[in-house]
């Protein structure tokens, strides 16, 4: 009963959100199914209308004390639940949302260690600027630097998301939220090179592929695929245990250090407090100078 409503919600989400990818759907399914099992087996709830705020609080304690989840993981799972319960209430299946009184846990308990400018330079030096995959990888890194988007959003971009005339990327984030991210001149140049000289070769066997960034088979590059590529570059550069979050935060901090417009970056990041600068994790714009990255190709 509980899982059936989850699957219906996910099907509706996929239908309404054309920009959503299967990785995002899988993450939602995991988060919601985990909660469904908890309330059914541990709290004896058989319908979503029976779930109380106390059940949610008990689940939060389970994640903190028993499963030892990080605050960021708990925040993500709670966000998925809030969206799901808003959906149920919108259908009239709930009289009230049990998450309305549940506070969001603090997700910024620890800073993410970032790479130095020298380490980033070494990392970029490993990317061959004149090979098809190298041009693709440089374009992706420049887009990450210019927009600060999550890797999940990066690999979900379609060809139609790049607006060359406006110099920006326009894509769907969440259920129905359209986001436009301006690009730096370096990012536009890198994308132009990739689209002109690299992508046609990589996608030669699958020209119909809608994904903006493709692998050597001509199919959309996955998050895991891109991360394997980056890890390979990191190993060559002598950088151990580089994570996606660390790369993203490192590029962000490099931009902040090269910019005197921290408040402008904060606004694009949609955070109100400048004091959080070193811990920001939401999409941001290219207020920082584009020459902060090592110029390659």
Automatic annotation (TrEMBL):
Alphabetic keyword roster: DNA integration, DNA recombination, DNA-binding
One MF annotation (Gene Ontology) recorded for this entry: DNA binding
Signal peptide positions (record): none
Residue intervals of the Tyr recombinase domain: 110-297
GO biological process, one term: DNA integration
Domain of life: Bacteria
UniProt domain Core-binding (CB): residue ranges: 1-89
Gene3D superfamilies membership: 1.10.150.130, Intergrase catalytic core
Database matches in PANTHER family: PHAGE INTEGRASE-RELATED, TYROSINE RECOMBINASE XERC
Protein name per its UniProtKB record: Tyrosine recombinase XerC
Species, as recorded: Thermogemmatispora argillosa
Gene: xerC
